[in-house]
Amino acid sequence: MNHLLLIHTGGTIAMSQSGTGHVEPSDVNPIDATLPKATDIAKITTKHFSNIPSPHMTPVKMLELAQFIQHELTQDTYDGVVITHGTDTLEETAYFLQITLGAPVPIVLTGAMRSSNEVGSDGEFNLITALRVAKSEAARGKGVLVVFNGEIHSAFNVTKTHTSSVDTFKSVHFGNVGMVTKDHVLIYSQPATRQPKMIPSISKRVAVLKVVAGMEPDLLESVMTLGYDGLVLEVLGQGNVPPTLLPALERLVEEIPVVIVSRCFNGIVQDVYGYDGGGKQLKEMGIIFSNGLNSQKARLRLLVELESGSSQSVMEHSFSFQQ
Question: Is position 20 annotated as part of the catalytic site?
Fold first, then answer.
């Protein structure tokens, strides 16, 4: 029988609704009551890494989780790993594990939008399907996966799209890579992956700012004043900014790496427009163009590159479209 490692980190899947109607953490993880229903799937070893709401997750904790998984995989023979996680930052943890953890077995994240005692709770279904994916041969070599509502997504592409729907996780660029039916785990596309970079610690800081019409340049200047090591900028359309930002951007690029992503949820940034503030000018400045990552994932990618001491050319390559 397959042997799976189940790691709990907290989140709604580990919470219950109180008498006042508020969803709160439980001292005993209620999702563990599901495990007797999974005995025909695999032998399951459960580890409680943390019990925190996902807004409490940080890059430092993500690194600790990656190191924890790395250690556990040396202590026993596992055929896959499932991580339960809160949904607000689940995509960030999944992507961080993708770019740092070179695990030889499937790594699958899942969670719940409704707590254990709410009507229509989805935690049990999501956990069972995640366990099935983690033990499947189809999931091997596919990178870190997110399994939710019967769909399988790559960590690179998946994002939370709805504040409360159980169908919240979607892969906006390329669609989900697979699905889980009653009888089968089907993965019908191969997520592109790169060699991960495990880092020893996190000491750098990367800011994220969203560009809006008439944005004031002093917001960009504050990034340097506050001592950030990098900046991810959500720009307009295919890669454009108001021209008033150009002087501040020129000064920033001389000091720290600046990565741009589009504030559109579909598509990539390109150096198409040649007017003041257009992508052509930004490219000529030395700004790094991303490959369709959203800003929260681009922040993590830049953070890992900074911690690795990567050069500008290596950083540019790491954000190229083949991911």
Answer: no
> What is the Cα 249 distance to its own chain's centre?
27
Euclidean distance between CA atoms 317 and 192, whole angstroms: 14
> Taking the C-alpha atoms of 194, 195, 201 and 205 in order, what is their torsion angle to the nearest 10 degrees?
-30
Q: Which residue has the tokens 């159980």?
A: 166
**pLDDT at residue number 20:** 86
pTM, rounded to two decimals? 0.96
Q: Which of 87, 89, 100, 193 is catalytic?
A: 87
Q: Which residues of the chain have pLDDT under 70?
A: 321-323
* DSSP states of 17-50: E-TTS-EEE-SS-GGGGGGGGGTTT-EEEEEE--
* Calpha distance 86→106 (Å, rounded): 20
CB 24 within 8 A of CB 100: no
The torsion defined by the Cα of 160, 193, 240 and 215, in degrees rounded to 10, comes to 50
Which residue do the tokens 């163009």 mark? 289
Q: Which of 9, 12, 84, 100 is catalytic?
A: 12
- Rounded distance, CA 187 to CA 210, Å? 35
Tokens of 209: 């700012």
Task: Give the model confidence (pLDDT) of 211-270 as tens digits.
Answer: 999 999 999 999 999 999 999 999 999 999 999 999 999 999 999 999 999 999 899 999
